[in-house]
Amino acid sequence: MLFSRKTDMVTRDEALPGRTTPMPxxxxxxxxxxxxxxxxxxxxxxxxxxxxxxxxAERIMWQLPGVHATAVGYMGGWTPNPTYEETCxxxxxxxxxxxxxxxxxxxxxxxxxxxxxxxxxPTTPNRQGNDIGTQYRSAVFTTTPEQLAAVEASAERYQRAxxxxxxxxxxxxxxxxxxxxxxxxxxxxxxxxxxxxxNPRGYCNHGFCQVGYSPVS
Length: 217
Hints:
Elements lengths: L1 H6 L37 E6 L3 H9 L4 E9 L8 H4 L7 E8 L6 H10 L8 E2 L2 E2 L6 E4 L2 H20 L8 E4 L9 E2 L7 H4 L19
Parallel strand pairs: 6-7
Antiparallel strand pairs: 1-3, 1-6, 2-3, 2-8, 4-5
Helix pairs in contact: 4-5
């Protein structure tokens, strides 16, 4: 019964009430030294990705050349300003997410998507390995129509590669950030920000997903 509750998406009416006060965060990236809360330079683009535990996902993203800033938080649900403990109950509707601020002149969205697809299993709904629950669901939340089209196209290409390799169907939630739950990215507690830099031996279950992604040439 616990497994069923953790993998069933909560409705807006069933979600925990949350709070009006945002989570306090330091606001400076512990690795990149950039602002994690904005505003960012005008030439930057923003996208949000969810690929299981956000500790490892954030490290993958901040290591990409051309990424200006990252932050971890909760997105796609209904509970305002949730805590980590609340999110882990699967009663907020959020998935553990990573804010990615990047310079499109230095890194393409397709390169970001390659890192996304190849470092988790997008075919297991509400689960990454032993991490089970809606807070671990795979998702991409875009901020422009062009991003959405590009992400959908990348999913189609990766699905062809998965199918050719005998793997399953992508279950990744893909859509505009504004349409994901209440449309808000809520920053996680400060100790989660840059977690694997602060705790180099900390838990991480991300890695190559057996099928390579072919970037757009």
